Amino acid sequence: MHGKFSTSSFPVFHSPWPSPEFTAPATFSPSDLQSRKEIQLAQLVGLAIEARAASEVAAEGGAFGLKVFFYGEKDDNMSSPVEVPQKSSVIDIFRKRKPKHYSCDIAFAKSVEYILEPEDYLNFTKFSLQYIEEDGKRLTEHQSEPHFGGHQTLEEREESFYAKNQTLNCGFVKGSGAKSSGYDVDEKDKIYMNSCVIVVSSCIFGSSDFLRRPSSKLISEYSKKNVCFIMFLDEQTLSKLSSEGHIPDESDRIGLWRIIVVRNLPYEDMRRTGKVPKFLSHRLFPSSRYSIWLDSKMRLNTDPMLIIEYFLWRSGSEYAISNHYDRHCVWEEVLQNKRLNKYNHSAIEEQFTFYQSDGLTKFDPSDPQTQLPSYVPEGSFIIRAHTPMSNLFSCLWFNEVNRFTSRDQLSFAYTYLKLRRMNPDKPFFLNMFKDCERRALVKLFRHREAPSPPTTP
């Protein structure tokens, strides 16, 4: 608003010390703050903003200074000290606010009735993928237990990046003689999953989130009939949600979500377990042609068929994911993960050093040879066609999360660039769209609680 701030756009701050002789103006400009009363008003607004974001500022290492009482005489029954930054001007208080991110308009088709899959859409790179189902290797001292991701050697890992007919690790690997790989679901759920052609899926493990149902009024009858809406839960989460009134009906549904309970979780780290449905939808839904993944912190507000038409069919893409809203270089993402203690620092450094030794460079937006608009994705929303290259990329990305840290934003660019580098004559059509478009598709919430980061790799 060109230097002017409207008091109506900020949280209300109720002061116990009334100032009857002063009425707040409707708007004010920092350059016009001449009187003491106006400065006090600006400080009140700034403090209200700071109070709302106090935990975020503290998490970023913000140091607070003086403890002061504002406006009027101190009343021990009502007053409490408010910490404000030392040497801060009124303008500095406003500048401490994190930049807001907004949605943007998307030119969707008017209705699902007007869309049709292009005849030549699936004319992508062709090859056949098979998957290792049992780990027949003789386990070493350091590989004493079966592993859901298998025990892939570095040589096997390197070979798997070639887009060719091959059998590769892609999760769901059983130990020798074992009945299950982990991530077990009931037989009736397997039958239902095998029938899905178009899938929208999400998951909550470890009671880490609330259940957010897709906005039924914004989903077409066609999609309600033809799209599988799958929510994976573990038993702990199902119990928690049931206690909050979210109880599946006779058809195992809560709203549009078909609830599928996962037992025998493959990882102790709930975040790593969540990467299974995030990346391996082509394995969980073997008959599916398209899938949309959304994080449990989101509520879907857009018809999935309109999403597929716009981000895949219209752009001729087989994989779509948005860029990160703030960061675009893996170097920045590494520093942020360490600063916020998102994962064991040594494990992050080991992964980052490995990637640099294998050719990962800093993101340079001025380089015309840069293959992506950003090297850091916002991985909470993924749209896929289940083509060979899309499936291979998903397996490779999952294998990086399985081998290194569960912070998939660290491994995205490396995996994509290595796949492209090793297959120069086999294109992979990835659409990295704008973050504002991602925000237009969903309503964003905060997680109920974040799982604790692993203390060891």
Number of helices: 16
**What count of domains describes the coordinates?**
2
Return residue spans where pLDDT drops below 50 for at least 5 consecutive residues: 1-35, 53-91
Number of strands: 18
Largest sheet descriptor? 8 strands, mixed
User: Which percent range describes the beta-strand content?
Assistant: 5-15%
- Sheet/helix structural class: alpha/beta
What is the alpha-carbon Rg in Å?
A: 25 Å
Distance between the termini: 48 Å
Helix content: 25-40%
Mean pLDDT: 83
Shape descriptor? globular
Strand order, main sheet: write it out: 11-12-10-9-13-16-15-17
Protein name: TOD1/MUCI70 glycosyltransferase-like domain-containing protein
Pfam families: TOD1_MUCI70
Explain how this protein is built.
- With 457 residues, the protein is α/β, with parallel strands linked by helices.
- The protein folds into 2 domains: 5-95, no CATH class; 112-444, no CATH class.
- It has helices spanning 36-52, 54-59, 90-95, 154-160, 187-194, 221-226, 235-243, 270-273, 275-279, 281-284, 304-313, 330-339, 345-357, 388-403, 408-422, 435-441, and strands spanning 5-6, 27-28, 67-68, 82-83, 129-131, 134-135, 166-168, 174-175, 198-204, 227-233, 253-254, 257-261, 290-294, 298-300, 319-323, 377-385, 430-433, 442-444.
- It has an 8-stranded mixed β-sheet with strand order 11-12-10-9-13-16-15-17, sandwiched between helices. Strands 1-2 form a two-stranded antiparallel sheet.
- Helix 14 crosses helix 15 (408-422).
- It is globular, with a radius of gyration of 25 Å.
- The chain starts with a strand and ends in a 13-residue tail after the last strand.
- The relative contact order is 0.13.
- The model is unreliable at 1-35 and 53-91 (pLDDT under 50).
- Residues 129-447 form the TOD1/MUCI70 glycosyltransferase-like domain.
